[in-house]
Amino acid sequence: EGILLKFCACDNLIHGLNFFGNSVRLCNTIHIGTKLIHEQEIKKLTPTKIIKARKELFERLKNGEIPCDCQGCPYLEEKEWDLSAKIDTIHVFHWIHCNCGCIYCANKYYTKGKFSDEVLPAENYRLYPILKNLYEKNLISKDNLTVHFGGGELSVLDEADDLINLFLDNNVKEMRLMSSCITYSQAVSKAMQKGHPLVFALSCGTKEVFAKIKRRDLFDRTVANIRRYQQEAGAFKSNTVSRYIIFDRFNNTKEEIENWLNLSKDLGVGFIDLSLDFCGSLENKRGQKIPTEMYALFDFAREKCKELNLDFNIEQFSSQMLERGVY
């Protein structure tokens, strides 16, 4: 254990790494956070640059400097921090290509709405050799690491299997695997069989709405893949999270939400996650009042989950917006 020093910081600043396609940041609070590696450096990203940037950040924090992007953040805390502690939270968001075109997804702004089943590399850098080197340098925790996969879609990232297996081989504590489930992945299934949760966002309960939301007419195939994952996960299938993002058309009805909840129950998922379209809300509705009809949808879902004995949750940023009443 290292020497404890008292200053203002947060767990993400000290222990986190968030890999985006065009930068490396230290948290994923609605895709904001202090940049450790900037856009102009990203194509030449190396473990050495990450280590150097973290050391420089720690020196600034010790001197009382709060990064400008972090100022005012509620997670900042003045206490004793151990700067020798290892990285224990990693977000993997370094690719944007996907195999569906969800109308609410932030990626549509970067991909111009394009999607494909082709397996491709991330645009700017390979993450696997970087993380492997950080593990070899004993900088990543081997008993307390949480990994969040975002993207992009895992099944069309060429190094996805290598990344998943690297984390599994190093005893990752929890690995949250977000996937469209349009394409089956053996590596995702392997992780689920070890207790790591699959997170999928059908955002519908019928094939008609799926085609409108996802812009792909592959509802039956997607549901079949989820059933396969769940069967192979065995006792761990209850770790799976079924997510529904309410868009301002197509799926913003009690009928479709009920269809989704009934399907989720049938699939044997353990957790229900309901969300506002916070990406679109932040861009187009910021400051607008959340209508009472939206609260009614959340209340309906909550009561229906009680009937079905499903664990109901509201996505973190959506919960914050609902509490304050405005987008």
Strand order of the largest sheet: 4-3-2-6-7-8-9-10-11-12
State mean pLDDT (0 to 100 scale). Answer: 92
Beta strand count? 12
Sequence of secondary-structure elements:
EHEEEHEEHHEHEHEHHEHEHHEH
Shape: globular
Alpha-beta content class: alpha/beta
Overall description:
By secondary structure, this protein is α/β, with parallel strands linked by helices. It is built from twelve helices and twelve strands. The chain has helices spanning 11-15, 47-62, 108-111, 128-136, 160-169, 186-192, 207-214, 219-233, 254-267, 278-284, 292-308, 316-324; strands at residues 4-9, 16-20, 24-25, 35-37, 77-82, 89-93, 146-149, 174-178, 198-201, 241-246, 271-276, 311-314. The strands form two sheets. Strands 4-3-2-6-7-8-9-10-11-12 form a ten-stranded mixed β-sheet. α6 (186-192) crosses α8 (219-233). It is globular and about 55 Å long. The mean pLDDT is 92.
